[in-house]
From TrEMBL:
Residues 38-164 form the Alcohol dehydrogenase-like N-terminal domain. This is alcohol dehydrogenase. Keywords: Metal-binding, NAD, Oxidoreductase, Zinc. It comes from Durio zibethinus (Durian). The gene is LOC111294076. InterPro entries: ADH-like_C, ADH-like_N, ADH_Zn_CS, GroES-like_sf, NAD(P)-bd_dom_sf. Belongs to the zinc-containing alcohol dehydrogenase family. Class-III subfamily. One of its GO terms (molecular function) is alcohol dehydrogenase (NAD+) activity.
Amino acid sequence: MSSSSSTKEANVITCKAMVAWEAGKELVMEEVQVSPPQPHEIRVKVVCTSLCRTDITAWESQAIFPRIFGHEASGIVESVGEGVTEFVEGDHVLTVFIGECKTCKHCASGKSNMCQVLGLERRGVMHSDERTRFSVKGKPVYHYCAVSSFSEYTVVHSGCAVKVSPRAPLEKICLLSCGVAAGLGAAWNVADISKGSTVVIFGLGTVGLAVAQGAKLRGASQIIGVETNPEKYERAKAFGVTEFLNPKDYKEPVQQVIKHISGGGTDYSFECIGDTGMVATALQSCCDGWGLTVTLGVPKMKPEIAAHYSAFLSGRTLKGSLFGGWKPKSDLPSLVEKYMNEEIQVDEFITHNLAFEDINKAFSLMREGKCLRCVIHMPK
């Protein structure tokens, strides 16, 4: 059981967390000490968290250990630090891996969600004092993506949490704190898909299928899914994919096949795999003049992108998408409302519900391509 006293905001909490001690090694359940929230921070009791492909990529390759992974999560505010006025104990929240300060150049621009104050945190420490809030037997344990939700309690900057309606089921909407929202936003905010347009999506995982859903809701006439795992095809139809291509089934390059079936190339292409080599293929799959390629995946290796200059001289555009362009505090509450009003699908992405102690099973399922989202339910 987790423990804390009545003066929660002044005390360390001891609770369970799944700690990664080494790259690629199974997570270990440990008793961790979670420090109280410092100024402008909140401590959150995690209710549900989901495993995202980005967690696995970092777990396999990053050098900062020991670490508590997890960033796609929902929870309830347990205590607040000095200066926090937006949240009170008991508020329902989504955690987010990029924040929104609402005052920096990017937040004020209306053109970007790349907050200059609360952008991507890669060092494993808190934004405010570059220290960690976790420890095991006095040894520091580092954060991941400003969230670290594979713990019964976590501390986040108040700018990296979004208050949501208490009516929204936390065990479902946790998916909107990353993957599903990222795909929908790439389709709506970054690409701004138009009615009747043609779309190709490389990779039919959660993000790719969320892009498909966004394209379908915008009225795209053709949504081509490119995927090497045929087991994903049937499920993808429910999200709007109209045609499927397995590159292994063709002798010619898949971009040529796409150009043939789309009448010269699609209006939009989305790279959702995390393979920089596929970015050039995606570029070549969209049409001359106005073809737009959006890349969403986080690569495991070879981060540099190579493309022939003629792809751009002919009028194609390449854009990156981080969290689908959503400003988390400004935009996520309305996305939750869309879910509550049954305007978007979220439940359908949940293929497994697992207990906290079974989190390593979620890692195995995702690495083997046997799940979309595994929702991990924390102890009550």
